Known about the structure:
alpha+beta
Amino acid sequence: MANHVTLTQFIIEQQRGLKDASGTFSMLLNNIVTACKQISHKVNRGNLIGVLGSADSENIQGEVQKKLDIITNDIMIEALNWTGHLAGMASEEIDGFIAIPEQYPKGKYLVLFDPLDGSSNIDVNLAVGTIFSILRCREGVDAELDDFLRKGTEQVCAGFVLYGPSTMMVLTTGHGVNAFTLDQDIGEFILTHPNMKIPEETSEFAINMSNQRFWEEPVQRYIEECVQGKDGPRGKNFNMRWIASLVADVYRILTRGGVFLYPYDLRDPNKPNKLRLLYEANPMAFIIEQAGGACSTGRERILDIKPTGIHQRVPVILGSKNEVERIVSYHLQQ
Ligand code: AFP
């Protein structure tokens, strides 16, 4: 493993660069990494250990839960609640926020997570992932709701783990984006993609086309122009990808550019948006912007949104900066 930088080494060396760092954040990040290694093992074992399929229950979102939604949620909570680093947690799978049990010390951070994003893909063996966001909190107290309802610009760290052909962790603490590949033989994440940057131009878009009739006009216009290809106003052909797993679509965009859209749509007027702000849109927006891309609702920067609820949903348009800016301009021309 000569000259391979492990994630542990990377975190410690980043800590050294922060003059008054206590090491608490580094330990918290390592606790999250351990949880994700456990999740990777469960996901990779799948049917061999009977963890696939539906749990015959619904989460707070009214979504049918997979067994792995519950298992991975428990893994994250049990890996973090005892550490003394947290004042609270929030999960896609749990109503409200998660208090730290009385018997454990409280810390100065909050972790908000989607334990298994893309879980509708798990039974068909497609990529899924864990998304997490870390906020600083008032020290030594039990977190309250308002401690969680903070703009994405206040995140101190965002990351996701993609459980794909390789298990990869993508991480930012506000100093660029670095990706690590899990070496299953030694159980360590190895730095394989330092300082990831998204190409500003792209010819690839990701959207669920089956919702087309429900989109607003600016999105209709953008996608129509892409589909018209080189004979249309864009003067070039486009390719389309849709994995229905945010972590996988975002990783592809980090690697080769592209634009991802889960826009406002009128399928269900009571639920006009799909992706959750605090533990999906905000962490991805932090990562995408740190890699030189952009992330918007179409009308405002995702990271500037003042949250109103733990499970608030927003439209998400992210990826190559020039494409996102074009889509935003179409919204502003409305
Ligand atoms: P699940 O976790 O319910 O599979 O949803 C995944 C997701 O939140 C996000 O990862 C995908 O980009 C998006 O939903 C896919 O939504 P559609 O299934 O409507 O295409």
